[in-house]
Amino acid sequence: MALLYVLPALLPYTLFAVLPALHTAYLSLFDWDGVTLPSFTGLDNYRRVATDPQLRAAAWHAGALIVFFSVLPIALGLVSAALVARRSGRRGTSLIRTLLFLPQVVPLVAVAVIWRWVYAEDGTLNQALRAIGLGRLTDAWLGSFTWALPAVGLIGTWVVAGLCMVLFLSGTQRIDQEIYEAARMDGAGPLREFWSVTVPLLRPEMAVALSITVIAALSSFDLIYITTGGGPGNTTVVPGILIYRLAFGGGAVGLAGALAVVLTAVISVAVVVINRLAKDPS
Amino acid sequence: MRHLPAPPSRRMFLAAAAGSSLLVACGSSLTPGAKSSAAAGSSAVSTTVPTDKITLVVADADDTTMTPGLLAAFRAKYPNITFKRQYTGWDDYLKSINTTMSADSAPDIAQFVSGMNNLVKGHLLLDVGGYGKAYGWADKFPGLDQITLSGDGKTAGTGALYGVPGGLSFEGVYYNKAKVKQLGLTVPPATVAELEDLFARAKAAGETALVAGNLDGGLNHPFNVLLSVYMKPQDREAWAFGRKGATITGPEAVTAATTLKRWVDKGYVTPKVNGTSDNDATAAFAKGQGVFRISGNWAAAAVAKGLGDDAGLFSMPPTTEGGPLRTTGAGVYYCVSSRSKNAAAAAAFLDFCATRQAAAVTAEAGFMAPDATSMPQQSGLLGDVRTGWQWIVKDSGLQPFIQNASTPTMPDTLTTQLQLLAGGKITVEKFLAALQADFDQFHS
Fold this sequence. Notes:
heterodimer; A: MetI-like fold; two-stranded antiparallel ribbon; B: alpha/beta
């Protein structure tokens, strides 16, 4: 009977998520070009995943993206949540929330196209720099070997920051105002309040935000595919881009499958670790 | 009324049963490649166009008016044949067409793109050589070698014929007539050295000499053209077609790559070229930025619209004055699925592409017609393009893009390596060695 209740959700999930995932894992054991008969190669593809220098570079880039997708947005979210939480009257909060959440509503492909214009040689960012007399700092950001990765990362920050802020804002509304009052009576300044009240009490929200953003960072694909395609050179290549290239252009479906399985495993471990840490009360 | 939950063992059994029956249902699709047949089916070849009611499914990534125009023109001639067109954007088409062609519901006719050579090994493309002989395609179409493939699909220019070009494209040098006049430059230059001299003078006058965008690897246009100019045609084709033992590391290729690097280093090319996309470069040139742009005839419509009477085009000059003209080009090729039940009708459409009626549609869309002489007269930029094409066909100077047929990973490798080269991160020798490494890995 219980099974019957979950069936409407379970069936499509099994059909369209679980089975294809298992199929990918199965294909990762073959050398297959996507068309002709494959040959079974066992764990050979996994050996290549572990040794290929390009794959290792992609892993480093994904790691760097965690800074932009997780660390920065959570820091920004905490600070702004603290500022709003301290305000006595809460008028305007819902307007702020709507504005901050906007990037989440826009499809990522559209976001990427917009930011391509922002970062272009004569794009908005360079125009702004020239307008304030910093014309010598301008660059074609997405084509720069130094700046392409941070530039793409900051798009992620822009997208995710709003989500984190909204999460933390709703979290602060749960915090009893009396705790802040008590802290103030004990002579706590805004900084002390932030570290001793807001941050510890937002722990569950931080765990959720961290899980979502780390997944977004490690599995990022669309933003990078549209903005740089992995370039210039290989400076913004991430695992998602490589999986796509290998499977659909390069005729190496098995290797792409192996990489996808490894990526999924890494993300799962990361999420489990985050949730463990969040539960630890000390 | 509440039922007691079934004991866990039974629930697990049910779930397992459901799961395994699903697995059985998907059984055939779990065996990848099961649908590729072991041997090519052969059918009787006929040049008689069928007269019964037929619907042909056509898959393509042609964003011009050519493919729909050709289909409409063919249908006007043979009203019993209807088409169902499945258009997909270029990037998505590249990545999905192999799956589409492997499906039971494969389209009858498909635009042939690089990567589809894999389908040859699986016998999913129809060998149209028989039709070709019956219709006499060798005399009607240029560029058939680009879609003649070996049995393993890895080498072009040898083996069986798999299709024909509906329209062809080639690279030329666009120029801004107003700027050229204002700077006192004489066009067309007779040699590559003279072209570089024009670049130098444009640059000295504060202009961007060669407008380019390499965010998505657009420097491959000048690079391919320089390879066409400098390399011996047979060497260049051997490499582009993926012949065993071919190399791109010899002195001629080094000269081509060094020339491109020098153009970047001397500031002739759009500054920060790695941060500009190829489309944006065309748009900028059409808006009046820069003096020259090396690109294909597919950009002609946009350039003509932007620059109007100031738009011009000349052929890429050879190394020595009066030498044969050579350039890089490709085509929109149509191939036929080996599963098509209406191969004769599909072949009739392929043959139709060489007719005078088809040439009008092809030219209208900005492509070069297989029969260069039957293209209608045009004025302005399109007239320049037509003349350029006729010169190239006369000199048999059309050569394939090196990234299209050499290896399936070459488009990505070339883009990456061109960005490294333009960014000053690698030497010319390392650049060419990286291309060769990709080639050797696939063809070893």
